[in-house]
Amino acid sequence: MLNEREAESCYLGQFIPLQYHHNMLMDQNRMENFKAAITRLVFEGAKVLELGGGTGVLSWFAAQAASKVYCVEFNPDMVAEARRLLAMNRHGEKVEVIHADAFEYLPPEPVDVVICEMIHVAMLREKQVEVIENFKQRYLAKFGGPLPVFIPEAVLMAVQPLQQTYDFSGYQAPIIQFQQPGVFSADTVELAQPALYSVIDFSQTNGMQIGWEGSFTIENAGTVSALRFVTKNVLAVVLENSSTIDWLNHYMALPLPEPIAVKAGDVLQVSFDYRAGGSIASLQHSLQVSLKTAAAARAGHLSLAYG
Ligand SMILES: C[S@@+](CC[C@H](N)C(=O)[O-])C[C@H]1O[C@@H](n2cnc3c(N)ncnc32)[C@H](O)[C@@H]1O
Hints:
Radius of gyration: 22 Å
Number of domains: 2
Largest sheet: 7 strands, antiparallel
Order of helices and strands: HHHEHEHEEHEEEEEEEEEEEEHEH
Shape: elongated
CATH superfamily of the largest domain: Hnrnp arginine n-methyltransferase1
Bound molecules: S-adenosylmethionine
CATH architecture of the largest domain: Distorted Sandwich
Number of strands: 17
Helix content: 25-40%
Distance between the termini: 65 Å
CATH topology of the largest domain: Hnrnp arginine n-methyltransferase1
């Protein structure tokens, strides 16, 4: 029998079944960027903690240089899997898999790096932000500062209006979609530049509420039928060449309840407000989208200038 917390966890996707871990292992973009960031930030002899270890793969990347890796996982099936798989891989013995809740566990000693990949688009569903904020408070109370380095170090989130076709072999179905970044599709037309709506820096204190109110100047005439949510995880900052090692999540395109016809120069006003770790529906319910035509936008400018 599940308790209330576990039931909510299942519902919101914390309890990821084993077959889905295979998809995560197959995701080259995710794997190679995490590997590069971990290789860069975990120095020889470092102590590392991973929150939400799954198959243990990220802990294993860390174990190539670290002297010790604490890998915390609360799904008992994954704890057993991680132990089995780590035993098959060189340096796997440096990883201690601990069956515990990341909201409660603290390592027995200070650590240099914390890895946490409980990431879903727009920081919805999974508990990344809450787990890390909770961890920082408990860690500082037990060990004092400094805080370890976090992988990812930060997350940037943006939103963009789309004209999205929802024709599936003649069947109209405006439905949430996850889209591969960088893959062109004639079904998707970008109607304005994306706007950055939130930056989460894990070295700082972060609130749980993520809200935005802003506007887009439409570049191409069309019909706004969806909003695309873009989530870029900055896994590591590479100071010497002013670059970053990033992992871009699949884009999430949410259909609007009513498509809006637009012309170039129109101003689309958008607002939303949701809690990190909340459901996709909670973001959808908070969405407000309205149009100011180019003429009305110009009149507004004039009245501001002369009013
Ligand atoms: C997205 S998966 C990532 C797994 C692995 N780190 C990887 O990159 O392949 C997130 C993992 O966090 C675990 N998890 C979620 N909530 C947790 C919690 N409160 N405590 C410990 N593990 C948790 C899930 O069971 C899952 O295995």
